[in-house]
Each structure stands twice: as C-alpha cells, then as structure tokens.
UniProtKB/TrEMBL annotation:
One Pfam family of this chain: PAS_9
Positions of the PAS domain: 4-75
Listed PROSITE patterns: EAL, GGDEF, PAC, PAS
Protein name: Diguanylate cyclase/phosphodiesterase with PAS/PAC sensor(S)
Residues covered by the GGDEF domain: 280-407
Organism taxonomic ancestry: Bacteria, Bacillati, Bacillota, Bacilli, Bacillales
Start and end residues of each PAC domain: 201-252
C-alpha cells in the first residue's frame, strides 16, 4: 500500500480539495488521510494508520442503513446526511459524508469526504475550511463527471449560469454542455483525450447553456484516476463571457491580421458597406489557397506563417490599387476596380513568382471567384455566398482557376435568395404541406408504409421540391423548424388515420443537424404521446452521410437508441450513393435499407447493374434488413425486383405523392 500512499500524498487534487479526506481499507481501518483531515480531526500520521475511525466504519455505516459490504461494492458515490462529527478540538459538528469505493492493487478501498458546515466555532480550522468551501462555490462553477463523462454533480453557481436544473443535468453527457458544431465537438474531444491520458487541462472554453446560448469560461479540468478501472473528472470554471466580448470588440476595432498585416474580415465588411453606401461599382474577388491543409500539414507553424506572408507580398505587388483583406485561415478577399482579364492574370503571375520555403518552391495554386457590385449581388452577405458557390464549382473542377458568375449561377442564386426570404413567411403562415408516397410490399401487395415528403407551392416562386428546399434550410438553420413541422404533422396524421381504421407507417426524413439538438428525441416522444401514436408506426430515414457522422458522435447515437427502444425504426436512405460502412450498420439501430432511385433507374440497362442491385438486396436481407427500392417506374423494373426478392417498392408505378385526402381515396 505504500506506493499508493505515496501517490495519494503527492496528488494535487486530493491535497487541495478543501475538505477532510480519509481512505479506509476493506476492514474499515485508516490507510491514508489528507492534511485537512489531520488538522480537523487532529490525527497523528504515525498512530492513526491501521486504526478504525468512529465516524466512518462498518458499525457507523450500519447505523445509517448502509452495510459496509454494500459501500465497498457500489460503483456510485454514496452520501450520508447529517452525521454528527466530533472535531479534534473537542467540539461537535453535523456534516454530510460522501463515500466512493475504488480498487487498487487488487484490493478494495473506500474514500470518504467530510463536508464540514459552518456551525463550528468562529476561528476554528473547520470554520475556515467551511468558509473556503463557500468561497469556491461563490467564485467557481463546479461539475463532476463519471468515467463515461456523464454529470454526477453540479454546484448552484453552474446551474444558475447554465440554466440547467439539478434533476435535468444529472446523467447528461459532457457534450451537451457545449455547442454541437463539428469544431466544438472536436474541441471537447481534445479535452477528454487529455483527461483520459491523466493530464490536467486548462484554458478558455466556449460553452452552451441549456437553451443554446453561448458563454465563455476559464476551465480547469482535473482527472481523478483512482485506479485503472475507476476514474472521475472535475471541471472548475470561471465565467469570462464579458471579458471575451470585450476582447472581441477590441479585435474588431483593431481590424489588422497579426500575421499578414492585412486588414481582417471585419474591416472587409465595413469597406463593402461604405462602397455600397457611396454607390461605387467594384469587383469583389475572393481567393482560396488550394489544398492548404495539405501544405500546412507538412510544415510547422513558423513555415505556415512564412507561406502566408509571402503570398500576401504577391497580392500586394499585383493588386497594388485594391483593398486586400485576410478573410479566413487560407482565404483572402479584395475590393478592386480592376477588369476581369487583369484579375485572372494573377494565376500566371503566381507561377512566374513562386514561393520558396527553405530553398524549395511550394506548389501553391488558388481558386478564385469574381462577383460584381451591383451587377451580380447587392449586399455583403450575398457577395460572400455567391463567392463560396463559385469557388466550390471551381474546386470541383480541380481548382487553380478564377471564375465569374454565369447566367445559370445568377438564376440559381437569385432563386435561392428568394426561397430563403419566402421560407420565413411560409413557416409563419403554415404554407408547407406533407404529401405521402405509398410503399408496397411485393409479397402481399399491400400498402404498409408511406413516405412523408415536404411540399411547398409558393404564390411567387412556384413549387419548391424537397431536393431544393432541404439543403437551403440546412444552410440557413431553418431545418429545425421544417423538421418540427414534419414531425407534428405526421404524428397528427397518424392519430387521424388510427381513428379512421387506417393502419399505416409513416417514414419521415431527418438531418444530422436536427439530431444535434439535444432535445430531439424528447420532442419526438412528446409528440407521439400527445397524439397517442404507436412508436412502431413511425420510421425515420437517414442518409449515409448522417450515419457516418452519427457513428462518431455519441450523443446522436444515444438519442437514436433511445427512440429505437421506444419502438421508432430507422431506415438508411439513398443506399448505394455514398460510402457504405459495415460499422455504422452494426452500431446504429437501422432496420431498413432504401436503394436509391438513380441506381434503380439503371436496373434494365446493364447486366452488371442487375447483379449489383441483386447483391445489395441479398446483402441487406442477410442482415435482417427490410430492403426497399425507390424510384420504380416501369413494369420491367418491378418484375426484376420481384425476381430478386426485394421486400418493398416505391415509385411512380405505384403512385405519385398525394395529400392525405387523396391517399385515403386511393387506398379504397
């Protein structure tokens, strides 16, 4: 035990927790105690070890209806409230005692923490510790997490700022204390990896309240590794939100990128606004260094900065009469009066003036977009969106080019902007509706399910299909409102059909963004209960991209499993168009595969395609999945799928999507 004693004696966390701590062996004898316990109870290091302690031993535990053996076997902390504790100075105090069992070197031990309150006499060491404890509670937010990073304790200061309640926060995963963007999740994972390696983590962290509001903290995360199998973690946090806001304001005022010396994105937005206000015509040039992450990964930070500085020099030399800004890590934006032919000449200029790092030329190319004001776009936001759309097109073609907007680009961007504008009104006025496309079981010929499809017929822009609507809604954040509309409408429809004796299952489509909402599962369950829906009558369709991301994000998997346990089923939509993974098929609660319509359309054209589709069907059935073929339009396609023993089909050969009333008549 001496090795363990030395470890505990040197453990910063134990010796700095402001409460007495004593560790007992499985016989109830003292094996170690911290300095606070030595001072409060006046224990002697030489004589106390190996002796019983009257305020936590097998007899004392039994008096509080907690058998000693049960304490040693428990995997969770156990609390003893209002225990009368004798102080070393002769006084008495009532305290809460928290115990936690752990294993070390094959033996069980019991750690006890004595939360001495401030009823002790003024000036005593115990009262000093009590004041220190209350001072910490007043100054710091404090949360405890178990080995799975689930919340086991949160102090009042944390609850107040984060807007959680004690009942709701216990058992929540650490990820729900942060935002759910990819960047934020990667940040949290870096903290957890450090803790798992036994390292204390300290730094600034952006967190989210229960309502999704952002706040900033100075975080110290401490691993408490009691044994290889037993660990928990403490987060001590100081609110620095106001400081961060002040810092951001100062950065916006400064306007200067510290590495390149260029003005930054804030100044860019201001300059565009000034040009627009003055009615000045200009070209908005957006440049993105191709494969920057590849270039960066083979170098260190100093080399990366040198690369950016040298690239900036070439921009200054070539675009000497333009406003040049650094708009992102590897993105640059310019406001320039120069014509297109001159701007496009920057690419050969780069080739003629290569960048050398350590005597070696860096193979650097750029993708660019030219958007004109006011001919192409009329606001900073739309200039940026048009630039990103154009650069994506350039990069899809291999990069190393500077492109302008085509007539098709103009039409597409204008329609997209109009859809974004009109969508707000459509949701407010409930102009969206659900159409239902039947799925027929090939064995029985019965309609067992329908897929719910969002339809929007706008007075100004006409029909907007789901394929056009959903990507725009995901980009501007309105996918949550559309998802709520679909869910509420589908559940209400199931209730109505049940009353009419129509037994159908409805499939709804969901996005990864919706499931990153930590309340998604709860909201869905509440809707089903409110409409008295059988959870088995609801199926959620997810894409392969959704499945790949869900596999890596534990909170999403937990929500999916929770819904599946209630009876909700999941289908993998558009199967065969992405990167199928055996792993997520095993990890996620998927019960059906839907073969994408683009694949089904080719079933009669090539023998190899027929073999591939047959293989997909047999693969799905071998895993006990129901296999559904989408986009079936001809009798020849239908008969081939029947021979291949596909379970169900969906497509125009059965029916076009219909509203609820049309479907009810069609079923008769």
């Amino acid at each position: 035990m001496s090795e363990k004693q030395d470890f505990l004696a040197q453990t910063l966390a134990y010796n700095h927790i402001p409460f007495p701590i004593i560790i007992f062996d499985q016989e109830g004898l003292i094996t170690w105690f911290n300095g606070h316990a030595e001072r409060i109870f006046q224990l002697n290091t030489e004589t106390a070890k190996g002796q019983p302690f009257s305020y936590m031993n097998p007899e004392q535990a039994a008096l509080h209806k907690q058998p000693w053996e049960m304490l040693l076997e428990s995997t969770n902390p156990v609390r003893f409230e209002n225990m009368e504790i004798g102080l070393g100075s002769g006084g008495q105090n009532y305290s809460t005692v928290v115990t936690k069992a752990f294993t070390s070197h094959g033996e069980r031990f019991l750690l006890t923490i004595y939360e001495i309150d401030d009823s002790v006499s003024a000036g005593s060491a115990a009262r000093e510790l009590s004041h220190l404890r209350h001072g910490l509670d007043d100054s710091f937010m404090m949360t405890y997490f178990d080995q799975e990073f689930l919340v086991t304790y949160a102090n009042p200061h944390f609850l107040k700022l984060s807007k959680w309640t004690p009942k709701r926060v216990l058992g929540k995963p650490v990820w729900q204390m942060f935002h759910d963007s990819e960047e934020d999740l990667e940040f949290v994972d870096s903290i957890l990896e450090s803790l798992k390696d036994g390292h204390v983590w300290n730094g600034e962290a952006k967190k989210a309240t229960k309502d999704g509001e952002t706040y900033w903290v100075d975080l110290t995360a401490i691993p408490m590794q009691l044994s290889e199998e037993d660990a928990y973690y403490i987060f001590l946090e100081k609110d620095i939100t106001e400081t961060k806001h002040a810092q951001k304001h100062l950065e916006e005022i400064a306007f200067i990128d510290p590495i390149t010396g260029l003005e930054n994105r804030h100044r860019l937005e201001q300059a565009v606004a000034e040009h627009i206000k003055e009615g000045r015509h200009f070209s908005f040039l957006f440049l993105d260094i191709d494969r920057f992450y590849t270039l960066r990964d083979v170098s260190d930070t100093d080399t990366e900065n040198e690369l950016l500085i040298e690239f900036t020099k070439r921009l200054r030399m070539y675009f000497s009469d333009s406003l040049i800004t650094r708009a992102g890590l590897h993105e640059f934006a310019l406001i320039t009066p120069l014509p297109n032919w001159f701007i496009e000449g920057f690419l050969p200029y780069l080739q003629q003036h290569p960048i050398y790092i350590g005597g070696t030329a860096v193979p650097l190319t750029v993708s660019g977009a030219i958007t004109k004001y006011p001919e192409d776009q009329q606001s900073f936001v739309h200039l940026i969106k048009a630039s990103y759309a154009t650069i994506k097109k350039v990069k899809d073609r291999g990069g190393s080019a500077i492109s302008t907007l085509t007539a098709d680009d103009h039409e597409r961007l204008n329609r997209k902007a109009l859809i974004e504008k009109r969508l707000v009104h459509a949701l407010d006025r409930k102009n969206l509706q659900l159409l239902y496309q039947p799925q027929v079981n090939l064995s029985t010929g019965n309609v067992e399910s329908v897929e719910a499809l969002v339809r929007w017929n706008d007075d100004e822009i006409g029909v907007v299909t789901p394929d056009e609507l959903i990507p725009i809604a995901e980009e501007n954040g309105m996918i949550h409102e559309i998802g709520s509309f679909v869910l509420e409408t589908a559940c209400a429809q199931l209730k109505d059909w049940k009353a009419k004796g129509i037994n159908l299952r409805i499939s709804i489509n969901s996005s990864i963004r919706e499931f990153r909402d930590k309340d998604m599962a709860s909201m869905l369950i509440e809707q089903m209960k409110a409409n008295n829906c059988d959870p088995h009558s609801l199926m959620i369709e997810i894409t392969e991209k959704f499945a790949l991301e869900a596999e890596a994000e534990r909170p999403i998997m937990l929500q999916m499993n929770r819904l599946n346990q209630q009876g909700v089923q999941f289908a993998l939509d558009d199967f065969g168009t992405g990167y199928a993974s055996f792993r997520y098929m095993l990890l996620l609660p998927i019960s059906s595969l839907k073969i994408d319509r683009t694949i089904i359309q080719s079933i009669t054209k090539q023998e190899k395609m027929q073999k591939m589709i047959n293989g997909m069907i047999q693969f799905g059935k071998s895993l006990d999945f129901q296999v559904i073929a989408e986009g079936v339009e001809t009798n020849e396609q239908l008969e081939l799928l029947r021979v291949m023993d596909c379970n169900s089909i969906q497509g125009y050969i059965i029916s076009h999507p219909m509203n609820a009333q049309e479907l009810e008549k069609w079923l008769k």
